[in-house]
């Protein structure tokens, strides 16, 4: 499950970022309806994901936020500046909650609760007192951490230098004096270090770096004071600047050194200290301490305060691990893929020339070529694997979704997944999860009936939900199928009229079904936590269109609904069978191939000059020749008994494609013909073979349809 | 005719650089900026069912690029193919297309005043695509609008919907 957490975190971060930029750009006087929808959808998506993965606090918070945004979006509430402010702050809160779930510091519970109540007050239409925020300087600080690197901001830093260090103190003071204001707070002695108070624009890391030139590492440290700004760090306010010694840890506490600092401040601040202070302080020990000291995190950390700091550092590990996935634009990966393809071709060329050389004389060269071959193959596989992911990585999150939702809705549902190994583009995988989640939730909520209703209808009490993925005619098809109630034509039409859409009773089913993709369209009687806000379907369609795909609906009352997402194959990798016809090589997508056979002359019948069929264990299958389909192909065989028949099936119809020879079976990178040329009937794309030649990929669905025309009559006559 | 054609703007100094290639007995010039590279003819995969002057597609560093034989398109008699047959790879209207010609001679810079409107002569290329005739010492170069030519319907290079 944790692997999907990562995906959710990444997605949620994106949604939050999008929400923020939209909120910042929104025009209060005349908010754009599409922007409001987008903000709402971002909240909705986070809620959906959070609920799926059991992050109750996130889901709960976003639910409240969503209520407000929904009313704004519907025009029931006018957007006010206060709302935008609260929403922005809520975004920060969500981010904090999210960070907490990724192993970061805990969020300030009081702050979140306060925001939550303000959100719900706003969504009830009440005025809100923003004073609640200002009252607590710490909260303001958490929402907008001051940037220490901001120019012009003065930092007061305390520098502690071990008395044993051989430091030319007057020279150091002089040096620092040129960078800012420095004063000596305490003379160094045998049992107390030197203490300097330094005020400048330098952040503490910069100061530490400066000091590193003058003082041996490990013998000094820099402690953050407070920023001379109104909303400063707060936590140091209680430590009087004149008595910094009181806040300085004693030497033997080693790395507990920062822990005692927050101790004098009020307890709520300690959490905040941990959150922000951590980021500021953590790099320091590493920088200002020798490696051996780093290995010993405080020999005897004092009980309560010390546990804060090491705890914080332990949590740093997962926070850092979060960054181990890298998001790269697909364009870069495509370029890489093309370059590697070229490399492989160059390598096979070298290999071919190398094979003509005398192996004794050129042993080292040939070894090098062999090595190059291995390396480039591995490189190619690695690059390919960047892009391709089995659809299972999307599907695998659904067993949990379905289980939880079914429990919530008091329904019994059995989930079946088919074709999880179908590989598809990584870009699609990421973009598919949202729409698919919406479709699955919709099917469960609206499609599949409660058990008692199902029994009354004479169906099995357990509903069936099928997720299916497969390749079809140059597309990847992903289906969400349920055996539920089906779409209610009358209700959709009624709802459409209610919303003032122009509809008529004579619309075809397909047209009626497509109405549910309109924004804000929901036929659910009441808004539930699961679905029914009418946000899902328009997002689904939008996302799928963005991927260059389309979505279709099949629905029959009481029989069920199938939502079919059809995605283009661009850059999908295809398992294919390469075949030779005449001098040309073609690729047949393996998904369509049933079997291949060499027919006996007696099994091939020709029917009244209309075409030929082959007798396959009693079934008559029409024979399609590529010459017949494309016009003449030089040197192509025309006699089935001399060549090989490949039996293909598309949409339940079979045809036998006549080829001269089977060449091999491998994976091909699908290239679009239309980029530089145009659509060619019967071809779904092109690919590049190992020798650099282009091979064309056959569109089996089109070929089978032509076979149907050519040979169906023949088959029926023979049979 | 269309010396002011916007498709082929002349340089600021009133001159244009042309790549000169031979087709049959004639020399043609095209805007050098439309040319991506020049390469030999090899490994063309035929597209069954395409017109004969579309030789097929090649793999140009991972891109599938169609190859048009202008000699066949303009019916310039016998054509042969060898690794020395020249293919000019063009970059036009955001696409990459290769054209087969008899040979590339040189790159010349012609002043706009050196280009005269073409009379309706018997050149292989339809006058619609001819920008003018350039004189270069003893030679005559037919300046053509390669983009307009490749975009034309009878080239069948792009889908009708896209071409519009």
Distance between the termini of chain A: 54 Å
In the CATH hierarchy, the architecture of the largest domain in chain A is 2-Layer Sandwich
Chain pair sharing the greatest interface: A-B, 34 and 25 residues
SS-based class of chain B:
mainly beta
- Provide the β-strand percentage band of chain A: 15-25%
**Annotated CATH architecture of chain B:** Beta Barrel
* Share of helical residues of chain B: under 10%
Shape of chain A: flat
Counted beta strands of chain A: 22
Topology (elements, then pairings):
The complex is a heterodimer of chains A (719) and B (164).
Chain A: H1 2-25, H2 33-52, H3 56-73, H4 81-101, H5 109-124, H6 131-135, H7 137-143, E1 155-161, H8 169-179, E2 181-186, E3 194-200, H9 204-211, E4 220-227, H10 244-247, H11 267-281, H12 283-288, H13 291-295, H14 303-321, H15 330-354, H16 363-387, E5 388-390, H17 392-395, H18 398-409, E6 413-418, E7 423-425, H19 426-447, H20 451-456, E8 463-472, E9 475-482, H21 489-498, H22 509-514, H23 536-546, E10 550-556, E11 560-568, E12 573-581, E13 584-589, E14 593-597, E15 604-607, E16 611-616, E17 619-625, H24 626-630, E18 644-650, E19 653-659, E20 661-669, E21 683-688, E22 694-698, H25 700-718
Parallel strand pairs in A: 6-8, 13-22, 17-19
Antiparallel strand pairs in A: 1-3, 1-4, 2-3, 5-7, 8-9, 9-11, 10-11, 12-13, 12-20, 14-18, 15-16, 16-17, 18-19, 21-22
Chain B: E1 15-23, E2 26-31, E3 35-40, E4 54-60, E5 63-69, H1 70-73, E6 86-92, E7 95-101, E8 103-111, E9 115-116, E10 130-136, E11 139-144, H2 146-151, H3 160-163
Parallel strand pairs in B: 2-11, 5-7
Antiparallel strand pairs in B: 1-2, 1-8, 3-6, 4-5, 6-7, 9-10, 10-11
